[in-house]
Description:
This protein is α+β, with helices and mostly antiparallel strands. Among the domains are: 6-91, DnaJ domain (Helix Hairpins); 252-364, Urease metallochaperone UreE, N-terminal domain (HSP40/DNAj peptide-binding domain, Sandwich), CATH 2.60.260.20. 27% of the residues lie in helices and 26% in strands. It has a four-stranded mixed β-sheet. It has a three-stranded mixed β-sheet with strand order 1-9-8. The protein has a two-stranded antiparallel ribbon with strand order 2-7. Helix 2 runs antiparallel to helix 3.
Amino acid sequence: MSKRDYYEVLGVSRSAETADLKKAYRKLAMKHHPDRNPGDAESEAKFKEASEAYEVLADPQKRQAYDQFGHDGVKGAGQGGPGFGGFGDIFGDVFSDIFGGGGGRSARGSDLRYDLPLDLEEAFSGIETSIDIPTWDECETCDGSGAKKGTSPKSCPTCHGQGQVRMQQGFFSIQQTCPSCRGQGEVIADPCDTCNGKGRTQGSKTLSVKIPAGVDSGDRIRLSGEGESGERGAPPGDLYVQVAIRPHDFFERDGGNLHCQVPISFVSAALGGDIEVPTLGGRATVKIPEGTQSGKRFRLRGKGMPSVRGGATGDLLCTVSVETPIKLNAKQKELLAEFGESLGEKHSPQEQGWLDKAKRFFEERL
């Protein structure tokens, strides 16, 4: 099967300059790269075809041979044959622009963080919500090149498109970012009026975010490719939505478990009975045994938070607090006094034990 013309593959004229070749290849590589099209054989083939074409046409000697003799003049290009650098040379050039490799080239956009506050109920059930975020988008006027419409960036005359220059200091040769193009490898003589040569414009977008049930403060949801757009056609970064759970009026969270305080009356604590408590999944009943003391903790298994990673659901731990009656009338006080006189030591074992210890404490010091 005969190969297509390299200029046709890249969609450029035979007189295209290096910057035009790079721009054309960048777009094709961004579109057909295997990482962006996993399992797509057609895209992979187009990616390899464009890479081979760029490898030849971006090299002045190879391009001259191709223009004079066609494909026969550059046999072995793209395959690492004698006299050719193979695809590795391309990765040091255009791919550093696209995927952020190499020093001083146009890198992928920055990752962004968005803080999303949630109620505990929302974290319990999971929600799908919309968020508005500021963005840097590729300039539509110049297609991200930064150059005024009808023009294109030129190869930097200082570094010859490499983005870096070598400085000789005695016996040492030091490579550093090109001061003329600041590592871009290109200079813009006539910048775009819309983006002032940046290749990007500021805007905003609305995204839908699905929050799974069980998330906790500090958990992050990654939205791939929704971060800041890269400069001059480089890929965007990612957006990380970080969850922050608001304090709750009733529950305190400890990992997958929930804690709550449940006040009960003196009578309920003494006689026992059933009390109803709220949970994030509905109502539940706690059986209070006779003689329950303040501070007693009851565990309701499976009534806590679900696990965001598919583990076991947490528990709800209810700590009872026995309330002392207040604002008693004369009759109530009289009844309580009679009740107190009727009690023996066996009815208040903790109190009696404490009094015995206190008595021994004072006797030892007299």
